[in-house]
Structures are given as C-alpha cells and as structure tokens.
Amino acid sequence: MTLIKSISGIRGTIGGAPGNALTPVDIVKFTAAYAATLPSRKATPNGERYKIVVGKDARMSGDMVEQLVVGTLTGCGIDVVKCGFASTPTTEMAVLFANADGGIILTASHNPRQWNALKLLNDKGEFLTAAEGQAVLDLAEKEDFDFAEVDNLGNIEEEDFTDRHLDAVLALPSVDVEAVRNAHFTVVVDAINSVGGIIMPRLLERLGVKCIPLNCNPTGDFAHNPEPLPANLVDLSETVKREKADLGVSVDPDVDRLAFIQEDGEPFVEEYTLVSVADYLCELAKKEGKPIATVSNLSSTRALRDVTEKHGGKYYASAVGEVNVTTLMHKVGALIGGEGNGGVIYPAIHAGRDAMVGVALFLSNLAHKKMKVSELKKTYPQYFIAKNKIQLSDPALIEKILSELKVIYAKEDVNTVDGVKISFEAKKQWVHLRKSNTEPIIRIYSEAGTMAEAEALGNEVIEVAKKIIG
According to the model, what pLDDT value does residue 337 have? Predict the structure, then answer.
C-alpha cells in the first residue's frame, strides 16, 4: 500500500512501513501543518483563538487517529470540538454550527477498513482549495512547526451535531415531509457498520418511513467491501425483495456517497441518484420562476444535462473532484450538483455531498410521482458508462496521447479542462480520458445509449491511442 498525499488530504493504511502507510508520525505532521497554515486561510479566529471541529466515521482505527489529531491541535494552542461518530456532511455542517475556523474529518471514505485518512475543511465547512491543500502538504514535508506553551494549550469540548444536521435537512422547503409520511414507504438501509447506521435510520424515522436496518451497528467491522457498487450490495438487493420494500439505500462509511436499489432488487445506478434529485429540484424551480443551473464533472452522465435543459436550465461541467465541482457551483450559482458516485451537493443547505439530503429529496420526489422506483428510473434519459484504462510504462507518453487525440478528433466537440473529453453530439456519446494522479495510467470513461456502444467507443479510442505510441 502507498501513502497517498493530495490537496484534499492524506490517506493510507494503518500499519506498515513509513512512507507506505499512514503512521502516527504522518498524522501528527499533517495535523500540525494544517494548524500552522490556519492564519493564511483566516487571518483572525472567530473567538479568542482558533477552533477546529473533528469528526470520525466508525472504522476501527478511528479512536487512535482521533487522539493523535486532537492532541496535536491542542498542542498547537487550538481549541477542539469533538463530534465523535459523525458523517462527513455532519462534520461539515458542524463547522458552521460551532462557529469554528475549520474542521478535520477522519475517514477513508469508501476504502476498506484498514485504511484511514484526514480530510481538511475551511471555515465554511468546505474542502480546502488546491492552493490551500498544497500549502499544507509543503509545510508537512518541512516539519517547521511552532507548538504552544503549557499555559496556552487548546481546550477540548464534545458535542453531537447529528440531530442539528437532520433538523436542517427536514427544514428544507424542497423536502416534503408530509408527502413522504403519507406515502408509508418501507426502506432497507445498508450502512456498512459505520456512522450511517446512526444517522440514516434516525432520518427515516423522522420522515415517518419504516426502516429495516442492515449492517447498521457502528463497529467499523465492515460487512462487505464498502464501496456502494452493485457487486457489493447483493445482501441489500435480496433483503429489499424479501421484505417487499419500496427502496434500498446504501451509503459508504462516511455517508457522503449514496446508491439506491429498486423495489425489484435491481440497481437504480449511482449516476442516476443526482439525475433524479436534480430533475425534482429543477421542476420545482421552474414552477417558481427561479433560474436553473446544474453542475457535474466531465466524467458524469449526460443525463443530468438532458434533464436540466428539459426544464430550461443551463448545465455546466467541471474537472473531476468535489472541490472542482463546488468551485464551479459557487461561480454559476448552481441549484444542485455532484459527481457520478451518488454524491448530491445541494447549496441550499451546504456545499458538500450529503446522503441524508439525497435520500430526503429522492423520497419527496417519489412521493409526489406516486410510482415505483423502477418506474421512476424509466422516466429519465437512459445512458450507460463503460470504464477502462491504459497502463503505460513511460508516464511521458500520457501527454503525447492526450495531445495527439485533440488533433485527431478536432472536428468533434473537444474539452480540455481536465484531460481530453471528446463529445460526439450527433450520437449523444462521449469519451473522457484523464491521467491518474497516483499511477502511470490513463483512465477512460465512455458513455452511449447502450453498454455495447459505450464499450465500443472506449475500445475505439484505446486502439487510436495504441497507434499513437506505436
């Protein structure tokens, strides 16, 4: 395993050789660097001194990592608000609730249980920008830190923000609590034995939904691979069918990603989580005469663009990465946005992926449409995405391939914001090639009206790339 350092945080396995795992020394260095760069992001604290919120998912290494992070922050003279078990969106909102100057989320998201990570937030509860994240990385390598004298050590307080988060979700005008209650839904929740097992059943209870919990004990002993992909959700699918439930809900360990299972046990498809919620919100905005703009990254389904334009709105595409999506959303004043991994970002509550918001809006939509989930899926434009990659021994070849592809497909619609995306508008197909940040590979996503067409398009471009490199 490799320690992964990026502008969004630091991630690695617990246990292993330095440089190849997330060690206690790494955690201290990275936390101290985050603390030391606080004044550059926020010249003066909200209170007498800086205050940082710390939340964690339920993975087994959480207590150990939390102790190191909290101890380092207080050693830097910073006050800490410990949220304990808290989803990523809850921790993001806790920054605002606590009037804090930033936050650190202890989660490796969808990675297996041996992984953990530190994700860094600013005083708005949003991820650091690329420049801010790079500043933390640079300082961590220099290890040039100043620690507080004994009389100036930070203080620690504890507060659970789960219910305040749910209060905010249920207070959204677009969440029709009464309609959901009257629909008498039954929902199965697979929370992978992490913090989703705490917050998601509580949300459904408050919505008047019958919740059937599956893997909802927050022990951190993940019941299956935590990435919410169909292959990992067989038990959820079978439970939905056996219980004759209306919907199956799967969340990752920190509850920012969201996947649905239809009443027939088939996947709703992660890409369509955002599409469905966006269609619902765009329809409401259109009725109210409000401007409509949506955002997703370049590797996300065209279906979001289609439903946005159906309602007279404008669709925008960003580079891959949540911080890139939210930056563009702020710029264009987007109604909603996200990526193709089931993450829903709704600025009306906060600018971060939030599975609780996604579920509440999806159920509101379903209650209004008065149809089964499988029937709802058929009302949306149907596309299929194929995923592939090109492994290269020489990283220099990546730029050569991307550069020459732009020339070869110059007659098509070519976007170079993030790698190269070639759109074949007449066929409503596209292929997106971008280099990996961690491996000498080119990732290739292609989309078309059928999976066979998507795979054929991807293979066509792979063959062209092979000719480029000889």
Answer: 98
Cα 265 to Cα 24, 56, 262: the distances in Å are 43, 31, 5
Catalytic residue among 109, 194, 296, 300: 109
* Contact status, residue 436 vs residue 370, Cβ threshold 8 Å: no
The whole-chain average pLDDT of the chain stands at: 95
Q: What type of residue sits at position 70?
A: V
CA pair distance 108, 85, nearest whole angstrom: 14
pTM of the entire predicted model: 0.94
H or E segment to which residue 460 belongs: helix 451-469
With 0-12 / 13-18 / 19 or more C-beta atoms within 10 angstroms meaning exposed / middle / buried, residue 172 is: middle
At CA 369, angle to CA 365 and CA 373, rounded to 5? 75
pLDDT above 90 (res 7): no
Distance (Å, rounded) from C-alpha 75 to C-alpha 71? 6
Q: Tens of pLDDT along 130-172?
A: 899 999 999 999 988 999 999 999 999 999 999 999 999 999 9
Bridge partner list, 251: 258
**Tokens found for residue 461:** 């471009």
Six-digit token pair at 68?
Answer: 């190191």
DSSP secondary structure letter of residue 152:
G
The helix (H) or strand (E) run that includes residue 296 is: strand 293-297
Residue-wise pLDDT for 290-349, tens only, equals: 999 999 999 999 999 999 999 999 999 999 989 999 999 999 999 999 998 888 999 999
318 is catalytic: no
How many other CB atoms are there within 10 angstroms of residue 374's CB atom?
Answer: 13
Could you tell me the two tokens for 48? Answer: 């007498």
